[in-house]
Design a protein that fits this description.
The protein is α/β, with parallel strands linked by helices and 531 residues long. It contains 20 helices and 18 strands. The chain has a 10-stranded mixed sheet with strand order 8-17-16-15-14-13-12-9-10-11, with helices on both faces. An 8-stranded mixed sheet has the order 3-2-1-4-5-6-7-18, with helices on both faces.
């Protein structure tokens, strides 16, 4: 199988997600510095593309459709290389000029125009889409719009060069006709818009190739959460470790009749590796919690001494799952008295909706907020549509207002750091869109914070482990949140086997989220539930 079933092993620890403008600056800086000539970048990209195309599609006639920019030049190099290997390749230009005609390096290749598109598509088994590059942020005009539409209606498989033409590589928006690819081969780093919807659905499988860019002197705002990065953060538990070194967790949640939420959080914390977990919940929930999570210690919140002890004892405190009307008093107590990491979720966030400055002035200096878009809208005084339209900027605004780290659930899920940087999850699965998944995530985040990770790192590791657990152990529809904790140790163990360089030349591989018209990978989308 061309695309690895264990795709998550194919990941470098440091993968940036530049916007179009950031990528243009990285490109310019690399060339101006003399680190690598522009022509070498084009050659490296095209030859890497040819190798991947030939690996996935070892036979079939190829049609290269190129615009006049760098993506067109990359596509021409790939076509020339495939032709040199003996493949049947045709070239078609649809830009105002030929893309770097010298990239054909003397190969006798007739370059046709758009008038020959119908005949070319009738002969083609594969189409290399090099029509537009990173700069497009408006609807494609003619003749490119018609070219895109005809490619999408053709029988040929489609490989997008750097990204599907017609897509905004920064936002993932599709302002007009946009290529529906079976495979996207992107260069240097994946562009941010490839991971945002609806763009993610247009990409098919995504493969990012290293082609010689130097490390960025001024890194982009966003960085991808990869399995290799999470493995570095989590490390391995020492053979002589003990429960005290693994972290003590206190979780506060579960109003009467809502024991399930805090029990899921406790199960998540335990399965994530917490040494001891205490659950503070209404006495009516004692039997459910102690039956469901027998290794957790139950604490009655009406016992002031026991509650104070649970807060003082913990290495990290998570508040909110199923907490209901009791949230405000518990949140105020924690913000006033707890000087260790705090994770605020669900009803704890609703209790803070009118007071982000209170979070900023809390005793703890390491606070993680984990809202879904509805909760984020209440915190920001905004609408869900506005949150979904720009999750990175929303997360960063909330982070600045609360002086806290923000894990904004969605598609994709985003972590906004207090430093102004963002981390973006690469896993997208509809299995997240079921009640209780967020409660488990809260427990995992709290467990990793208790183990000593800073808020952003705890959230990063939690997203990587839960995402891998869902991707490898769950069906797209029908998985229950109660199954997720059991899958966490399996995912954690799998992360410990990650070795960067598992697929030479490829820095990250991400499976398709939907089936393409030509047959690609299984469907999926990321939601994390909530409203």
């Amino acid at each position: 199988m061309f695309f690895p079933s264990e795709w998550w092993r194919v990941a470098a620890p440091e993968i940036w997600l530049p916007t179009s403008s950031e990528m243009a600056e990285l490109d310019r800086a690399a060339i101006d510095s003399g680190s690598i000539p522009e022509r070498a970048l084009i050659e490296n990209a095209g030859r890497a593309l040819a190798q991947l195309v030939h690996s996935r599609y070892p036979s079939g006639r190829v049609l290269v459709v190129a615009g006049s920019g760098h993506n067109g030049a990359d596509a021409f190099v790939a076509g020339r290389t495939l032709r040199a290997w003996g493949r049947s390749v045709e070239f078609l230009a649809c830009g105002r000029r030929l893309p770097e005609p010298d990239v054909l390096v003397g190969w006798d290749a007739r370059v046709r125009g758009v008038d020959d598109l119908t005949d070319g598509l009738a002969r083609a088994d594969l189409v290399l889409d090099g029509i537009f590059g990173t700069g497009l942020d408006t609807a494609a005009r003619e003749p490119q719009a018609t070219v895109i539409d005809r490619i999408n209606r053709a029988r040929a498989s489609v490989i997008a060069v750097d990204g599907p033409s017609g897509l905004d590589f920064s936002t993932g928006a599709s302002p007009g006709p946009t290529i529906q690819a079976d495979l996207t081969v992107t260069f240097g780093w994946p562009k941010l818009g490839l991971l945002r919807f609806p763009g993610r659905e247009r990409c098919g499988d995504i493969i990012c190739c290293e082609i010689g860019f130097p490390p960025p002197a001024s890194p982009p705002v966003a960085r991808a959460i990869t399995s290799a990065w999470a493995a570095e953060l989590l490390g391995r538990r020492p053979a002589d470790g003990h429960k005290g070194a693994s972290g003590y967790v206190t979780l506060i949640g579960g109003a009467a009749g809502m024991a399930g939420a805090v029990a899921l959080a406790a199960s998540g914390a335990i399965r994530a590796g917490a040494g001891i977990v205490r659950v503070v919940s209404t006495p009516e929930n004692r039997e459910v919690v102690q039956t469901t999570v027998p290794s957790a210690i139950f604490v009655d919140p009406n016992d002031a001494v026991a509650l104070d002890e649970a807060l003082a004892w913990a290495d990290a405190v998570g508040i909110g799952p199923g907490l209901g009307d009791e949230a405000r008093s518990h949140v105020e107590l924690a913000l006033s008295e707890v000087d260790r990491p705090l994770v605020l979720d669900a009803d704890a966030l609703n209790a803070c909706a009118c007071g982000l400055s209170r979070i900023a002035n809390a005793a703890s200096r390491d606070i993680l907020l984990t809202p879904h878009p509805g909760e984020a809208a209440r915190l920001a005084g905004s609408t869900v549509d506005q949150i979904v339209a720009d999750p990175i900027e929303t997360g960063l605004d909330l982070s600045r207002s609360a002086d806290a780290t923000v894990l904004l659930k969605g598609a994709p899920t985003v972590i906004a750091e207090r430093s102004g940087a963002a981390r973006v999850a690469t896993v997208a699965s509809p299995a997240f869109a079921t009640g209780g998944m967020g409660d488990v995530l809260t427990g995992v985040c709290t467990a990793y914070a208790a183990a000593g990770l800073a808020a952003a790192d705890a959230a990063t590791a939690a997203l990587a482990v839960t995402g891998l657990a869902v991707e490898t152990e769950f069906e797209a529809v029908g998985g229950a949140a109660t199954d997720l904790p059991e899958a966490l140790p399996i995912a954690r163990a799998a992360l410990e086997t990650v070795t960067p360089g598992a697929w030479p030349g490829v820095s990250i591989a991400i499976p398709a989220t939907v089936s393409s018209p030509h047959g690609s990978a299984p469907p999926g989308s990321d939601a994390w539930g909530g409203s």
